[in-house]
Amino acid sequence: MPHLHLWRRGPQRAVLTVSAIALCALPVQNLQASDPFSDNQFTPDWRIAAPFSIERDSAGEEPENAAGRQRAEAAPGTGAAGAASASAGGIGAGTVAAIAGGVAVVGGAVALGASGGGGGDDGGGAGGSTVVTDPATPAAVNAFRTSEYLAHGGYDRVNLAHAYARGYTGAGHTIAILDDGYQLNHPEFSGKIQVQFNAAGNPLPGAMPIETHGTHVTGIAAARKDNVGMHGAAFDANLALYQFGTLDQSAAQFTRAGILGATVISNSWGYNARISDVQAEIAGGKSTASALASVVGGAASDWQNFLNSMDGAQDRGSVIVFAASNNPALGGIDVSSGMPLVDSRLMGRWLAVTNVNSSDQVVSVGCGQAQAFCLAAPGTNIYSTVPTSTYGNLSGTSMATPLVSGAVVLVVQGLGLSPEEAVSRLLTTADRSFAGYSTNSHGQGILDLDAATSPIGRVQVLASGNVHDGGTGPSIMQTVLSASRAFGDAFTQALDGLRIAAFDEGGAAFLYNLGDRVAVQEPVITALDTLQSLGKRTNLTQTVLPGGGGVSISVRDADLDFRSTQLGTGVEIDAAFLDTPLWGGTFSAGFHQSSGEFLNRLAPEAAQTAFAYRPEMFSVPYAGFAEDGYSAGFEMPLGEKASIGVLSFEGEGNEDRAFDGFGAFTTLSLRPTGSIAIGIDGGAMSEDGTVLGTDARGGLGLGEDSRTAFAGIRAEAAIDEHWTLLGSYHHGWTVVDGAAAALITSVGNVKTQQMSGGLIGEHLFSKGDALGLAVSQPLRITGGQTSLNLPVWRDWNGDILTRHQDVSLRPSGQETRYEVTYGFDIDPSTRLTGLTFHRSEADHIAGRQETAAVLRLQHRF
Asked: In terms of Cα–Cα distance, which of 221, 142, 190, 179 is closest to 382?
C-alpha cells in the first residue's frame, strides 16, 4: 500500500549712500563702493546688516572627516530586499552559532549539524523589501556636518546636510551672481568660475574689481568643499560672476546669465524703495516702467529694458532670487525683491528672501506683500570667503540669499524639477512649525532642505507620459520581485545597478537601484532544511480502511526555529493523505499539504527510503511549487507491466515560496522487466500572478498569469538484490500572459530543466540499512529573456525619459549537488541516519559553495 502522511507549516543699519545700486548689506571696515550712476540718479541700499570680522590667518583648519568626503548615492532606496547569499557554509551567522558543532532536538530526534564552505550574507525573506531606506540616515547626515559645514553658522537650521546625504551637491549646474565685485582667485573658487563680466561687459579677469561683499556672497553660494574654511551651499556647482551697474548694464548681465543657462541668478542687492509706492503709481494710471522710474529714479525705457531682460532670463530657464531690504523701517517689501507684484511675467520663477537670526526672528524687512513667493533663511553672523583669500563674518539678507540660491540648484539637480517646480517645492516645504512664525514676516517659512528633498506623498513608478498627467502607477514601496530558486541570481544580476526614477506627488524624481527591489526566495539554509526535514515527522498511528487502503497519520513538532534556537513542545495536525481502492485502481487525495510531498510517491521506493528527506529529486519538480493546497490522483493498471495515472494539484506557496495556481499531468509507468521501471510524465500548470514561483509585484510585475508545459522521464534499474540505479530528467516551457507592469514590457518564453542520478544500496551491512549516492541539478532556468522599459529621469516639461533594455533570465551558475546518505537500525525502535552533501554553484549562483553534514537519531516509543 502506498505511503500516506499527515503534517502542518533645515544692528542697526548705518547708511552708506552711493549714487548707484544698493547692495544688500551694511558698511564694513574699509568697504568701498563704486559709483555706476550719475549724481542725479537713485540711492542704493547695501544689504549687509552688521560689521564683520576678518580672519587673516586661515591655517590650522581641522581636516574634514573622511566619511564626509564620500558622496551618498542619489538613490533614496538602498532597499532591504535580502540577498541570495550565505555566510559560513551557506548558513546564516546566527544559525551557525546555534547548530554548528552543537546539538538540536528535533521531534524526538537528536541532530548534529556542521557546515563549511563559501558564502556571503545570509539573505532574507520571500520578497523584495517593501521598505525604501532613505540614504539620509543619521550617520550619513552627520558625516557631512564637518568643520567646513558648521563654520557657516546656518546650514543646520535649513537641514542642508540631509540634501548632501541624498547625493545633491549642485554638480553640473551654474549659479550666476550679480554683485559689486569679487576676488576671482580666492582658493575657494578655484576651477569653478565659468565666466566673469564687469559692469561694462569686459570678460577679462583683471577688469573685475575685488570687493568684499560679492566675494562673501559667492562663497555662501558655492565655495569648494576642500577641508579649509567653509564650503558653499551647492559646493559642487559652477559659478558665473557678473558686476552690476546701470540699469542697462545690469540688464545685459541678466541676459548673459540666461543665455549661459544659469540655473539660478542670485541678487544680494536692491533699491531702497517700497513696492507699494510703485503699485500706487500704477493705480494712478502709469505703466510699470514709468511707475518704477517715478519712485526709484532712472528712465522708464531703461526700466522696461531691465524688466524684459529678467523675463528673458527666466524664459531661458533661470530662477531669479532677490534679497529683501535690511531696513525694517522701510515699512514694506522693497522694489527689487517684490518685482513680480508689478510685473506678473516674473511670477513663478522668482524668490524673495528675508533674514532670520538664530532665534528664527526676522531681522530685515518682512515678506509682507511678497509672502506668496518669499522665504526666510539664516543670514546673521555668517562665515564665508572675503579678500584676500581668507574668511570673515557678515550679516544681512545678502547672506541669506545665496543660501536660498544654492538650495534652488540642489532641488533642480537632485529632483529633476523645472524652475517653477523648484520654486514651488521650496515654498511648499518650508518650515512653519517654529514658535513665532508669521506669513507677514517669514513668508512661506524658513528654508528646509530635508523636507524639500524628501518625497511628498506617494512615490510611484511611471514608465511613460508626463508626471503631471494625473495618471497613477504602482508604488515603489510595492514594486518588489521575489525570485524563485529556479531563477537563481538571474534577476539580481540583471537588475542590480540599473537605476530607475520614481515620482512623488509633486512630480519630483527619485532614483532607486532596481536590484534593491529583488530578493531570492529561500536563502541558502540547506543544512537547516535538512535538519528539519530529517526530524519533522513522527508516524504515530496507521488506520486500515474498509476494502483496503488506509490513512497513515503523522505530526510535526510546532515552533521549531533553529535561527532563534527556540524549541517548542506543541503539536499540530492539519493535513492528510488518503489512499483507497476505486474502480479497479487507486484513488489518492491530499488535503492542506504540499503537492510535492503528495507526488513524491512517484519517486522509486528505494529513493523514498534512502533519500527520505528529499525524494523529490527523483519525482516531478513542477508539482513542488504548491506548498499548501489540495492534490488528487487516480492510477489504473494496464496489465501487469504498465499503469497510467492522472494527477492534479492546486495550492499556494508558503512564507518562503510564492505560488498561486494549479496543474495536472499524466504519468505512464512501465516495467518492461522485473528489474527495470520507467515513468514518462507530461503535463501543464497555470499560475495566477506568479511565474515558476516568482512573485513579482507593482512596477516589476511579470504578467497576469503564466502557463507551463512540461515533460520528463524517470527510471530505475535494479543491478542486483542490493543495488539500484536511479535517474530522472524533466524539461519545461513557460509562457507569460496578460498585461505587463510599468517596467517589464514582455517576458519571452522561459525554458527550465531538472535532472538527477543516483545509486542506492540496501541491506548491505545489516538488515534494513540503506546507502544512497546522488548527483542532481535542481530546477533551473535555461533560457528566456525579459524586456524592460526603464524610466531614467524627467525633463523640465515633466515628460518621462525612458531607456529600453533586454536582460537574460539565465542565472550565473548551475547548481550541482553531490550527496551521500546512510541509515541503519540500531534496534527495532531506534534508527541512526547520516547525511553529507556539497552544493557547487549553490542556488545556481556562480562561485557559491555549500557543504554540510547531519546526523539524526530517531527513537520510537
From this structure: 221
